[in-house]
Amino acid sequence: MTSKPRQMHFGVSLGDSGVHPAAWRLPSNGLGPVPSLDHFVNLAQTAERGLFDMVFTADNVFMDTSKIERQQPWREFEPLTMMAALSVLTSKVGLVSTTSTTFSEPYNVARAFASLDHLSGGRAGWNIVTSHVGAENFGMDGIPTHEFRYGRAEEFVEIVARLWDSWEADAKILDRENGIYADPSKIHEINYIGEHFKVKGPLNISRTPQGHPVMVQAGSSGYGKALGAKYAEVIFTAQSELREAMAFYQEMHDLVTAAGRDHTQLRILPGISPIVGRTEAEAREKFAAMTELLDRDTVLRLVGQSLHTDLSEYDLDDTVPESVLPSIAEVEGHQSRFTIYRAWAVDDKRTIRQMAQEASASQGHWLVVGTPEHVVDVMVERFENFAADGFNIVPSAMPQTLDDFVDLVVPVLQERGLYRTEYEGDTLRDHLELEIPVSAHVSV
After folding, report:
1. 9: which residues sit within 8 A by CB, 6+ positions away?
2. How far apart are CA 116 and CA 213, in angstroms?
3. Which CATH fold would you assign to the domain 9-167+193-278+366-432?
4. What is the sign, positive or negative, of the torsion defined by CA atoms of 141, 298, 236, 37?
5. Across the strands, what pairs with 319?
6. Domain spans of the chain?
7. What is the β-pairing status of strands 180-182 and 172-175?
8. Residue 269: enclosing H or E segment and its boundaries?
9. Alpha helix locations (H) across 349-408?
10. pLDDT per position as a tens digit, 313-324
11. Do the beta carbons of residue 362 and residue 394 sit within 8 Å?
12. Which residue has the higher pLDDT, 34 or 100?
């Protein structure tokens, strides 16, 4: 039997206007003074037209007022609420939402994502994160250490998985004639007691269409990779160089195997920020149009926050000396992004302006500017070298980035046989070619 050729998988990160700090100023985004569901419906339906595996929402649970005068927040809507709305107005595309393990409770999260999986007919995914900001909004004086956050996260995810398993698939009988609603012997308490949580269970919603919503994870620190190896089915990551991406891909497959899991049930989707034009010149013009809208203070804040260093006294054409930068061990959040910026500053000796030009359009992800054929060529290089199973689009400007990718890049991928021409299933697991997890209460 001939095996199915390997094809790329795609997600897109949904925001109000895009990751570029000046994207909100572009007239093409059509944003108004009030958050609009229609905006996100259009984006999700465009992704579905492009046969994407999923749309994805990052999240923040704090308000950085230092940016608000000149920079739009990434998204105003709470992500799970928004995804529930999108589940009604889409039919195929997966719906992956972020919820933090630092400021949430396992039972609520298990219930919410199980609900989304039922509401969407099996299209839900949970992006598992720990939070490094926002503690003051949750009755805390400060953010716990990296070690504490990930210790809590590991217990959290274990509990959620057990709660999703607490109903066996055939527990609900609905025997109307004899008045039997469900078989209580197939609904299980979990009775979890750990260092951080004590949860009795069972969940008060039946087993979902996917068994478990798909688990997604993005941490690239040592703790993050260990958590991903144990639970993640999709990993979002940020690497700008091919060699680094190949090494990360192999490392994660090795770690998943060492954790006793089947590494073929892992999909690695690095972030890519594509700026696409029908010609090279058109693509460069789109890039320049956004770059020209950046003011000095935004540039210094953007690069300074990514380097975890105050750059307010620097000029835009200065380089940043290594002596003023923290070590990676001192960085509590976004360590992979810090590593990229640090390499730009220390190894490449880029100026602050140069770092901002690239980073503003990509936020530390892989920036590619060019024609559809060029974008496909560079993605194929990573795909064929097992540095990626596909990509998560990190859009510099919405809806422009997504429209261009779907209209210009997707047809080239399809012509080369690297991407589906129709959905072959209905669930997110179908799209990603992931198996339904076997319940812990089923003998195999």
Report:
1. 53, 267, 269, 389, 390, 431, 432
2. 9
3. TIM Barrel (3.20.20)
4. positive
5. 351
6. 9-167+193-278+366-432
7. antiparallel
8. strand 267-276
9. 352-362, 372-384, 400-404
10. 898 889 999 999
11. yes
12. 100
